[in-house]
From TrEMBL:
SUPFAM superfamilies hit by this protein: vWA-like
Pfam families: VWA
Ranges where the VWFA domain occurs: 78-166
Organism: Panagrolaimus superbus
Protein name, as recorded: VWFA domain-containing protein
InterPro entries: VWF_A, vWFA_dom_sf
Amino acid sequence: MPIVTQIRNSGVKIISVGLNQTTEIFSDISDRLFLSSTYNISANISNEIIELICPIPPPPEEPMGTLCSQNSQNAWLDVAVIIDISNAMSTRYLSEAAGQLDTLFRLFTIGQQPKHSTRVGIITFGSDATVRESLINTTNFDNLQTAFFDITNFYDPNDKGGNILK
């Protein structure tokens, strides 16, 4: 898993959300793993992710500077969403996942402007991984929303998948 090591060595935390998962298949590549037994991201998982991104620190004795905002619209993040498009999924499940991602990322300011913008990339995988949207492609929420719902176009019922951990 050299790519995971490279990513971590550059200071990135890997947070994985396994939809329709009950096993910790991604535990080897994740710094924090959330599992959902359905194709829904619960409010608890969403809140825990936001807390991981910007934890509430104890108040300093003598405040200096600005504390990390608990307002997700002020988050300054680079996020890669990795989606299984193999025959383990279906267009229905991919559409449900797109709706969940749409709901989650509505909480963030999507864009390319420094300070308080979140950039989102999309990678799909089955037998091979493909970058569908790089971090610089999504310039606003509307672009991102379209990209999420376009994922169903890449579903391949003949792809047996299995290469995400290679």
